[in-house]
Design a protein that fits this description.
Blueprint: E1 14-15, E2 21-22, E3 26-28, H1 44-52, E4 59-66, E5 78-79, H2 86-97, E6 102-108, H3 115-121, E7 123-126, E8 130-132, E9 138-142, H4 145-164, E10 169-173, H5 179-184, H6 200-221, E11 227-232, E12 236-238, E13 241-244, H7 246-259, E14 264-267, H8 289-297, E15 303-306, H9 312-318, E16 324-327, H10 330-333, H11 337-342, H12 358-361, H13 372-378, H14 383-391
Parallel strand pairs: 3-4, 3-16, 4-5, 4-6, 6-10, 7-9, 10-11, 11-14, 14-15, 15-16
Antiparallel strand pairs: 1-2, 8-9, 12-13
Helix pairs in contact: 1-2, 4-6, 6-7
Bound molecules: flavin mononucleotide (FMN).
Flavin mononucleotide binds at residues 29-32, 63-64, 106, 173, 175-176, 231, 268, 306-309, 327-330, 371, 374-375, 378, 380.
Length: 394
């Protein structure tokens, strides 16, 4: 069967700035499945999950790989913090690439949100000191300049490992409150040096230096068509207070593009229907976030919309102000979403989770502990599906 006329725009190919051509506009967006070992090594369950989704989208991004233990967010996430991880990551890259997709690994440091660092070491790092009471009383250690340089080196080393593992690219994520965002945010950065909040260039500095270091490794060691992506949250607000506004974010993106040849920008945030979220504060208040980002980027690189895109109609809607559409949780229960849509079988797309499908879906059963509550935030899977997932570990 042929693609239904109205959905054809989603199946137009797209060339990334390095010449890599993708068959359609869908992206398998990052989502940790919490199924690696406690030491951060890739498991058979990780591989089976990735293989089952190898044909889900022509561009695929792994869940967060942590670049050091102090940056670890998920208990059973996977690490890229030393060379021992390369062997497992090689297998993961192969599994994702099995049907011709391009596989990108996401490199992350969760900063003060590194739950596992807090659990294991009793501390977390951030741009500046904070004394917090939840989930337990703890101190956010301010990063010394030396520690900043150390983390930048870790991003570079992780990039080197990603190349060795055979990934087609790396994505640096600043989004959803990770460390790069924390430096950029006036909420969590109270430093008084050149990385502090005194002006936007200082707040941007850490992110810019990470991107420059990653680019340098790519220039020296990666194949010519190696991809570099960036994922960011275009605005940070608390009530009517602004951690940073959309106009700051767009400035940040322009500076990043001066030091790094990024091949796409993915936008992301926590919440429902993020793909069409409006800007909450500042000059662009009320405008659709992705529309503003898309307009500002102005075709220099593709923009990827994510968050809440769980139906063909929403994918089409998101494509009005983006070049690619990313979905994370929908592929958990419907890895064949894109294939069905391509073949005009959209009526068969089913995001429900039926117990008899579990084996075919290769869902790692123990894994979804701690994860479903994150899925509750976005709500792209129905409550019934999320309850089925909860049953797996209750
Ligand atoms: C269980 C779970 C794990 C996630 N892991 C990651 C991750 O590793 N890296 C990341 O950038 N985003 C992660 N996210 C955020 C998603 O990429 C995405 O922003 C969110 O799920 C909304 O998109 P969706 O409606 O397509 O699921 C995660 C989300 C969930 C629910």
């Amino acid at each position: 069967m042929k693609t239904t006329e109205q959905y054809r725009p989603l199946f137009e190919s797209i060339a990334l700035p390095n010449g890599i051509e993708l068959d359609n506009r869908f992206v398998l967006s990052p989502m940790i499945t919490n199924s690696s070992t406690a030491e951060g090594y890739v498991t058979q369950e990780d591989l089976a999950y990735a293989e089952r989704r190898a044909a889900s989208a022509p561009l695929q991004i792994t869940g967060a790989a942590y670049i050091e233990e102090y940056g670890q967010l998920f208990e059973y996430g996977f690490s890229i913090d030393d060379d021992h991880s390369i062997e497992g990551l090689k297998k993961l890259a192969q599994a994702m690439k099995k049907d011709g997709a391009k596989a990108i690994i996401q490199l992350t440091h969760a900063g003060r949100f590194s739950k596992i660092s807090l659990k294991d070491f009793g501390v977390v790092y951030g741009p500046s000191e904070m004394r917090l009471k939840t989930p337990v009383e703890h101190t956010v250690l301010p990063m010394s300049r030396r520690k900043i340089r150390h983390v930048i080196t870790q991003y570079a080393d992780a990039t080197r490992r990603a190349i060795k593992a055979g990934f087609d690219g790396v994505e640096i994520s600043s989004a959803q409150r990770l460390l790069i965002q924390a430096f950029f945010s006036t909420f969590s950065n109270q430093r008084d040096d050149e990385y502090g909040p005194q002006n936007i260039d200082n707040r941007s500095r850490f992110g810019i230096e990470v991107m420059a270091a990653v680019q340098e490794v790519i220039d020296k060691e990666a194949p010519a068509d190696f991809l570099l992506g960036f994922r960011g949250t275009p605005e940070e607000t608390r009530g009517n207070k602004i951690g940073y506004g959309a106009e700051d974010f767009l400035y940040f993106m322009d500076r990043i593009m001066e030091v790094a040849n990024i091949h796409y920008l993915a936008t992301a945030s926590w919440g429902k229907n993020i793909y069409k979220q409006t800007i909450r504060q500042g000059k662009f208040k009320g405008e659709i976030m992705n529309e503003k980002v898309y307009e500002h980027i102005g075709g220099r690189i593709p923009v990827m919309a994510t968050g809440g895109i769980n139906s063909p109609e929403k994918a089409l809607e998101a494509l009005q102000f983006s070049d690619m559409v990313g979905a994370s949780t929908p592929f958990v229960t419907e890895p064949d979403f894109v294939t069905k849509l391509k073949e005009g079988r959209e009526a068969e797309i089913d995001l429900g989770l039926h117990p008899e499908e579990l084996a075919d879906l290769a869902i790692p059963e123990r894994a979804f502990k701690d994860l479903v509550e994150l899925m509750d935030i976005g709500g792209s899977l129905s409550e019934a599906s999320r309850d089925e997932l909860r049953k797996l570990y209750e």
